[in-house]
Amino acid sequence: MKLFILSFFSLVLLSSCMKGETVDRIIHNASIHTMVDGENVQQAMAISEGKIVEIGPDRQILNKYHADEIIDAGGRDIYPGFTDAHGHLFSYAQQKLSVNLFGLSSMKELLTACEEYRKKTKRNFIIGRGWDQSLWGTSEMPTNELLNELFPDVPVCLYRVDGHALIANDFLLKKAGITVNSKVEGGKIHTSNGRLTGLLVDNAMSLVEYFSPKFSDKDIISTIIAIQQELFAYGITGVHEAGIEFQHISFLKNIIDNNGFKLNVYAMLVPSEENIAFAKKNGIYAYKNLSIRSFKVMADGALGSRGALLKKPYEDDHNHHGLLVSDMKKMRRIALLALDLDYQMNTHCIGDSANAMVLELYRKVYQVKKDHRFRIEHAQIVDPKDFVKFSQYGVMPSVQPTHAVSDQRWVENRIGKNRLKGAYAYATLIKQYGMLALGTDFPVELTNPFLTIHAAVQRMNAKNEPIDGFLKGEALTLNETLKGMTIWAAFAAFQEKERGTLETGKWADFAIFEKPVQSKPQFEENFSWMTFISGEKVYAAE
Ligand SMILES: [Zn+2]
Question: How far is the CA of 478 from the centre of ligand 1 (A)?
Fold first, then answer.
């Protein structure tokens, strides 16, 4: 009997060695959080041709497979590669090439930054981004007088932190032909004492954008590749690019083919005539790591520049409700087209009125067919009685937790205490839809997903403010937050069958993190140790 048992085991051992399948790569000695059904943790996985062949205990995987590359993860946490479900690669590239105005605390600092940029880059134009007058100890919007004095003969265009307002100097305003009598639908051209102040909000920005100088393709390519590295270092393997122009499609294809751009991009098309023609011609579109099957529509502006469309006036401006940026007829036309093409419509809605209007629009068109997965981007201020419509109509919310902890300093002044009941209400939104896609809206916020975790779970910013957490009742659990960056983000892009969890048959997109992925009351940095896309190592910490 003893002999029999022994020979039985040696037979099993022998046959497993003989069957030993060769795979491209084995990762073992890890805590692999598969994100399948809650807390499912495995030790090892075998990867071939970009996909996960098998995942299981160390011994099972190491006994069964051979590979040239066997990576010992040293017990580290592995998660499916994070997706930022709402970011702007091209705006971020522009921002990196521009004057950095983030975090400046006065108009004086802004002027100095512009002067230094001019000296350093020798460009004959100045584009900047990131000013926030709320950091200057004033809620008054800036004017361009000092800019005109310093820069009388070069165009200057400086975007607010939220990208929903800009300040232009007189030189650029003149070049664009804007006068005190100019008008624009869904935008505001600010004037004071009968002269332009240079402040242009929402649709009014497009009046000068056409005349603003552009950075070279070469500069943009190298900057986007640098951004890709930054994302990989955080374990991010995918971005839902929230609004691309027609020329960006070929630009992305070009850098995929020629510059090693490997990030998974789910791009939302700005509904321009060219993009609409593209969608009609191509339908659901994929080119290597680029996929397109959605439109991005703007319903209103942002709270910071009082462009968000509210049901009742602003608490700190009783004559103003905000702006409807796209008219309802246009939005309805896009919605019907999206349904027709099996596309998704992702609409930017910040104010409670914008959210209510778009939920109703979706309900009206939704009767046509099922599983459209139309999204509302931001869903920032929702009238409490409208929350139920997310579940009733089946509308997917897509939010950015870092917005909550960035806006907490001033949002109560702007909208009043009462409306905070439906503000940044992520837990309530999950209860309604069952899922929530999470992003950062970079470059409005930083790309760091660990700030998203901190904001979602602790409801605090990087400085651990506010100490009790902002509207703490709307906090998410760590698991919900991680789902929002993995499997729910994949669902939000119709990709849940291919990505978002680590299981047999799915693309091997994952990150091995340097430190355990967790959430504590004190913010702690974390980075990827190695990042993989389709089984290929795209990043390794030095
Ligand atoms: Zn955005």
Answer: 24
